[in-house]
Amino acid sequence: MLAIQVTKPGLDNLQLVERPIPEPRRGEVVMRVRAAALNYRDLEVIEGTYAIAYDVPLIPLSDAVGEIVAVSDEVRRVKIGDRVASTFWQGWIDGAFETADTTSSLGGPLDGVLAEYIRLSSEGVVRVPHHLSDEQAATLPCAAVTAWHALVTDGHLAAGDSVLVEGSGSVSLFALQFALLAGARVIATSSSKSKLERLLTLGAHATINYAETPMWGQEVRRLTSNRGVDHVIDVGGPESFQQALQAVRPGGQISIIGYLGGKTGSINPLEIFQQQATVRGTVRVGPRKSFEDMNRAITTSKLHPVVDKVFVWTEIRDALNYMRMQQNFGKIVLAF
User: Fold this and answer.
1) Regions in the chain scoring below 70 on pLDDT
2) Which phi and psi angles does 195 have, rounded to 5°?
3) Is the fold of 2-143+286-335 the same as that of 155-281?
4) Which pLDDT belongs to residue 261?
5) Topology classification of domain 2-143+286-335
6) Which CATH number is associated with domain 155-281?
7) How far is the C-alpha of 274 from the C-alpha of 75, rounded, in Å?
């Protein structure tokens, strides 16, 4: 089979290699990959800027959909022919993150999914909604589960709640879709007028151009009759957190998911105290149970993920360079 591995930091060091098709060991399955999706973590791992340095050679990427082609004898929860997605954490089934195997994430430290065939734990796969194409289903394992886990599993999102999503990245788009599915009101931000228009088309009730309104927290207050929103999906990091605190209602929730605005900045904990806000780090994606719960909701509602562009999987450098430009609206997918 063909696989792509990274041997040292840099996109130019990605290598197309020939490897044996893996065979399942005890408790494992082998999946033929049909599609994979990119996350910003993948770019950082490949370029060597991620917070953790993994051993190389390493097959990168974590999100894939495909068909099970082999199972070990004792496996019962899935079978040959099932269409499944990988879970980011191969060893986190349910419960608090403290119960997870923190060495079980795909694309580092475990080999990832950028190969024609991959070996996975039988506990680390999830059947995907039938109405989704392979390219659409491949978008679910990280971005969608992160949004669902933040808003629904941990956030207990309810009908009538208000949600602020920052930007038009994949986590924010999934958060918008799930919030609407629950009957919540959504305010979305972006610096792009064309993306703001698309956010309205997706169902956002109001939008804010943060380039034109840098103090957008106050604008959120205005749009909510000075109440603030119940939930903030904060993907900007320290740069946006101050405005998120202005936007959230007293006793509301802020889910910190990314750091697209930068990794440095100052946060005054007294402001969190004054707002009585619940601030939760959600960079850990979520367990398999959140993935399965989410898939039931997607199946019932016939929700479709937003896919921006599809590349052939061997065009991984072009796809990652496209991601680096941050012009995409929705997920970037690789087709096998």
Assistant:
1) 258-271, 273, 282-283
2) -70, -35
3) yes
4) 46
5) Quinone Oxidoreductase; Chain A, domain 1 (3.90.180)
6) 3.90.180.10
7) 52
Specify the pLDDT at position 306: 98
Instruction: Answer yes or no: are the C-beta atoms of 265 and 244 closer than 8 Å.
Output: no
Please count the other Cβ atoms lying within 10 Å of the Cβ belonging to residue 104: 17
What is the residue extent of each domain of the chain?
Answer: 2-143+286-335, 155-281
Query: In whole angstroms, how far apart are CA 78 and each of 33, 69, 73, 295?
Result: 16, 11, 11, 16
pTM, full prediction: 0.94
Instruction: Give the DSSP letter of residue 151.
Output: I
pLDDT attached to residue 283: 63
The alpha carbon dihedral of 223, 227, 231, 235 has a sign of positive
The stretches of the chain forming alpha helices (DSSP H) are 40-47, 134-137, 145-148, 170-181, 193-202, 216-223, 238-247, 269-275, 288-301, 316-325
